[in-house]
Amino acid sequence: MIITQEKNKQVVESHDFDSVNCTIDAEDMRYVASLLRNNYSNPILAVVREISANALDANAEANVTRPIEIKLPTKMNPTFSVRDFGGGLSQEDVFGLYSKYGKSTKRTSNNYIGAFGIGKFAPLSYGSNFTCVSYHGGKKVSYNIFVNEDDDTKILKLHEEDSNDPTGLSIEVAVSDQDVDEFREITKNFFAFFNESEMPKFIGVDNDFIKSQEILMESKDDSWFIVKSDNHYSNHYYAHAMMGRVAYPLNPSNINFSSFVSDSNVVKQISSLASQNNLYIRFDIGQLKLHHSRETLEYNKATQKEIVKVLLKLRAEIIEIAKEKLGDSQDLWEAKVQYARVMNAIPYELRSLFDNAFEHNDIAVTSSRFQRPYQYQDELIITRYEKNEDKDASDGYRCASTKDGNIYAQPNVQLVIQDIASSHGNALRARTLFNADQDLKTIYIIHAVNERSENYLYDVVDGMQFNAISKDRLKYTSSIEKAKLQSGTKASKGETRASVPLFELDIVGKNTRHYRLSDYWLNVAEDISDLESNNSTLIYVPISNYKIVDEHETGQQSVVELDVFFKDVRSVNSLHGKDDKIKVYGVRKKDCSKLDKTIWKTWESYKLNFCKSYVKSNKKLLEKNSKVVAFENRTDEDDVNFRSIDMLFASDSFRTFFMNNLDKNHFITELMQEYSDFDAKGNLTDVRTLGRVMQYINKHDEEWVEKNVNLFDFKLFDEKCHKVITKYPLLVNIANQTYHYVDMKKDNYGKNLVDYICMCDLCA
């Protein structure tokens, strides 16, 4: 990147006085170097950004298409490394060019990200050393770059060997265990908006590590874009200025907008744009001045002016694009759909620009809703049906219904006018529509019960404006057949148990506090026959005086506390999809015998079957992490021997030293390698959840587990640990005094342990 110099400096220099150029003495360089190394507010981000940017520049300079490779740290291998495929460095270059603070070859072109010559030392802001491996001239040479006790930056050649690997550099940084997750998260965020051609190859993560972002609005020339975000209403975040491949926070508090724009409303609007964290603006490399840390922009007057100019252009383009989106709408429904999409994409403060600006066929569009007034709630009935996946129900889903006062214009919604007197069977009609259109998500059935409400529904001036909706978008209940359910059930034969009172567990928290047992339950107004008409599995628990009781026992003794049961249901619900939440009904104990047990299932039965299906759907993850699940869910009986030496095995330095210094076929080396398999190959939270689910199934159906799941037996590993503590008893005492971080070289600590093990082997 070309570093721009401030011009127009006019300094009068007198020839009558002596002058000298300011420099830095060699003995003082360590202090300046320390300032340069430690000028990052976020050292982890600095490591990811600087060495990744240098790797990208190296690839660009060598004109190679192979992507750089980034290895993410794990708990078992806490190292962050970046490998490029540029030309690499000779020893002369490492000891010459690379060792110089402020030395850079990238200041003559804006094709490169770097320029300041200090980013290569960014890992020293995180730790006291890092490793540089150079592949150059048929050699692989490793260097240790570190800060010594005198605070001098040193480069030490460690190893050299012949190599046929591609040329380039690999920068490797040791990561603390507590920083592993943060390194991964920062890396994911940093590369979120890289284009496909420059996206690194990530090692140690799933293929979907970098998730694609949904772009809600973008410029025609690709100079800016707005992504889907949950923070549209927040002013506590910054927009992003993208130069090259790197996004920098655009801090509006550092910009004096009013010095460039006189209109206070416009100032407010472009300031709001600069505050939107879902807005990304592309600038040419070198267009804005960077702070030498490259963490932030340097807000000199020229940079501020450039930012304001771009924001003004962006503001005008957003208005133009937003209006174009509504202008193409075919009817009022589509106009409202587009309105919602536009308004959800733009900053909240900019929405005032569009007051009374949108209309469709002379109808003002100010909302994405068709709203029913409160006074029409008994005359104009709106029922919303949604499709909730449930593989145990008919057609693989449940058809859930809710009374509503608004109709939200969204894609994949069907509008149905009830043109017959009775609403009986509407759930089955909705099912017919869902079966006919797999993309359909929501159905609104609107019932105008009298002439007044029907007039209001279609009134374009004062009503709900349904006359402005295309007739092709409307269906009528009289022309929709009821879906045929599975034969043989009482529900399909028309038998009902309307006298059975039902209560719904208050999972959604309509009662904000559960002071009394009754607060956990909501009255169900829907008839039981309507619930059963969906032919989906219904879940119940027997209750008496709002307590959960045993259906088959006499008395009213509670079998589980309601707060415990409440948490249990919510935990199971968290494993369902977003639109697939379950409901649990409380049925009075005396009425349980009246339930159709082909439709109604007890909570225990449902939970056990769900856990089994959850394990089956995650079988690959379980098989991949069988040892992890066994390790995470071991009992006191399973790890009697392992507990005596677990601190040794948990120490990275101990394991690394022993695996490097003991014979690879040694019993302890093999045992430590097996211990490394206890590290999760993916999201540890998902693995732990699988472990808890497996515990529940094992408790209630051990035979099913034996037939369907091949689990690792931790007791086998524990038995091997018994051999260690028997043959090398001193290791038990050492483990009691060992923590995760141990210097194996200090006082020959590691060598002495190896010698002790070898001595025991000789005596055996």
Keywords, separated by commas or semicolons:
5 domains, seven-stranded mixed sheet, 24 helices, 764 residues, disordered N terminus, 18% strand, flat, Heat Shock Protein 90, single chain, alpha+beta, 34% helix
State the CATH superfamily name of the largest domain. Histidine kinase-like ATPase, C-terminal domain
> According to CATH, what is the class of the largest domain?
Alpha Beta
Distance between the termini: 66 Å
Q: What's the story with the biggest beta sheet?
A: 7 strands, mixed
Structural class: alpha+beta
Tell me the CATH architecture of the largest domain.
2-Layer Sandwich
Strand element count: 28
Estimate nothing, just give the exact number of structural domains.
5
Which topology of the largest domain does CATH recognise? Heat Shock Protein 90
Which regions have little confidence, pLDDT < 50, spanning 5+ residues?
1-5, 103-117, 231-236, 487-499
User: Strand order, biggest sheet?
Assistant: 5-4-3-6-2-1-7
